[in-house]
Amino acid sequence: MTAQGWLQLAVFLGLIVAVTPLLGGYMARVFTGERVLLARVLGPVERGFYRLLRVDPAHEHDWKAYARAVLAFSLVSWLGLYAILQLQGHLPFNPAGFGPAPWDVTFNTTSSYVTNTNWQYYGGETTLSNFSQMAGLAVQNFASAAVGIAVVVAVIRGFAARSVATLGNFWVDLTRTLLYVLLPIAFVAALVLVSQGVVQSLAAAHHGIVVGPVASQEAIKLLGTNGGGFYNVNSAMPFENPTAFSNLVEMLLIVCIPAALTATFGRMVGSRRQGWAVFAGMLALFAVAVAIVFVAEGHGSPAQHLAGVAGGNMEGKEVRFGIADSSLFAAITTVTSCGAVNAAMQSLTGFGGALPMASMMTGEVVFGGVGSGLASMLLFVLLAVFLAGLMVGRTPEYLGKKIGVREVKLTMAGTLAVPLLVLATTAVAIATRAGKASLSVHGPQGFSETLYAYTSQANNNGSAFAGYSGFVQPHPPGNAGASGIAFADLLGSGAMLAGRFLPLLAVLAVAGALAGRRVAPAGPGTMRTDTPTFVVLLVGTILLVALLTFVPALLLGPVVQGLAGRTF
């Protein structure tokens, strides 16, 4: 822990605050149909998409039609990606001649990328062809991120609507997200990363090291909070993240859209203060998470103390990044649903590993995934409003709209579904013989690996404590003789699919119920939701409802490791 490290953290927080209103304002203009500079070039392309899809951009969906379009697009995406991965041995750009991975591993990988999770039981450079990486995974990085952003834009319309019961057109939102937000930023980011030394090639190998179209995939992997790396060691690999500047760019790419969407929300509902209130709650929880991880890693691990080694915990970290940037990256990737890493998560200290896990356990509402994070946070906003209404004996309302029984039930379903899913899948995995087949160690570390695996998958994060396996690859590189651990692959797939779509459907239903509802004028008893008092209430609600659910589980794993004076 040094003054320079704390300064690095402070500068990054300042960059987030600076970028949020700029990018958020731009996205608000995109999704409200205002003309932006890129429309001159991309307008004809956008209209061509609508003709190709036979979409009338003026036709709007209610929440049920919007949800059906989301599910239909996701199903087609799933089938297309599964086909590409299973047929990669017959497709081009396969210089190493890789055949397909086992069907259950492919099932897990397909579910992972379509749900914006990017959980990886495999090493990309030893398992997948360049075609699978480009046409399969990178395309889904764009598509799954665009779905998340489109959904939250529809949800915002539901909160902001005054006289209509529709939420917009999914196909229009999807197209505009891809053309005006994700593609331009990812293109520029890829060029910046190439300038820093990130690889972009279709060659078979470079001095015996696998190379490929890394920079183009790296940009959207981070910008879309996807996280799946071209290489097994992800952003700790110099070919993915070679310099301190590329590391800064990559961290900023992860958090810029989730943070900026709070400003988009404020502009679209007609009150920027509402957006800043949500942002403040997110930023406060994020700052605390970063500080605790940094302090824990700076203190060192029990293994170091037993060996008499002074200083911070550098186990599993890149020397070129150090403790500060590694701690910051670990916190960023788990408060969002990114999952990319520049250090080994399993090498964190007990408390250093507990905070990233706890950040995911909030439902990843502290910025969260692109779109999904703000959507889930708005459920917690409604829950905080409901709890405040109970305390003062008033009917809860938000943005002038009364929150009824149906909205409260849907809110509770959306906020509790994923925590229950995490605990159930972890219990099944740790208590059954089929589940234990994925463990490499037992005791607190084995429990932590299992808990982390299903917390990460159900919350669509994708980062992992190494050691929990679903893929046996005896002769890498290549998939000859490889087999999957079907229990872990299929249970994880179910967790990812349910964790993605259950909250998504719940929040769309809430937005549909609120869309078109009459706005009540503010009175002397109306609770303001754009004040520091409400921000404190919101943070307290997140800690109470989300984190307390997991306290017993955390005590059995990472907290035991952090308090014990010995290694496990």
Index terms:
568 residues; mainly alpha; two-stranded antiparallel ribbon; globular
Q: How much strand content do the residues show?
A: under 5%
What's the total helix number?
21
Shape: globular
Mean pLDDT across all amino acids: 90
Poorly predicted runs are none
Secondary structure: helix percent: 55-70%
Distance between the amino and carboxyl termini:
25 Å
* Whole-number tally of structural domains: 1
Structural class comes to mainly alpha
Count of strand segments: 4
Question: What would you report as the Rg, rounded to the nearest angstrom?
Answer: 23 Å
Largest sheet: 2 strands, antiparallel
Q: Report the order of strands and helices.
A: HHHHHHHHHHHHHHEEHHHEEHHHH
With strands numbered from the N-terminus, the spatial order across the biggest sheet is 1-2
Give a structural overview:
It is a single chain. This protein is mainly alpha-helical and 568 residues long. It has 21 helices and four strands. The protein has helices at 3-31, 39-53, 63-86, 103-114, 124-127, 130-160, 170-195, 214-223, 244-268, 272-299, 302-307, 322-335, 350-361, 372-392, 405-431, 433-436, 443-458, 486-514, 532-547, 551-556, 558-563, and strands at 397-398, 401-402, 471-472, 483-484. It has a two-stranded antiparallel ribbon. Strand 1 (397-398) and strand 2 form a beta hairpin. The two termini are 25 Å apart.
